[in-house]
Amino acid sequence: MTKTLNSYPQHVLIVEDDAFIALDIECVMESAGFEIIDTVGRVDRALDLLDQKKPDLALLDYNLGDENSVPIAKKLGRMNVPFMFISGQTRETVLSEMDEEHLVVTKPFVPDHLISHAHSLIEA
Engineered SS bond to 17: which of 35, 41, 79, 85, CB 3.0-4.6 Å? Predict the structure, then answer.
């Protein structure tokens, strides 16, 4: 098993409504030694999951069909869980409803950059 920071796998929640992109993110993160606790594609499912589990990191697609992931991001903030948005939207659009600056990785993402950003968020 590949180890990450602190010599144990970091647990990641992925919120992505496109199955192919979700699978790609899962593969990238698992290859870097992260453990995926779940992958969900809807706001309600993510919020329910966060009532049961606290991930070490979350990766959020901004657009989730007819809703966006801002409610999830705000809950993660209250839980002190680092997160980043992964989106095809502009940074300004993604952060327009947020009170603070957050990392926005644009799609299509570069796997090594995604891993590097994930490590830097966990280390912060």
Answer: 41
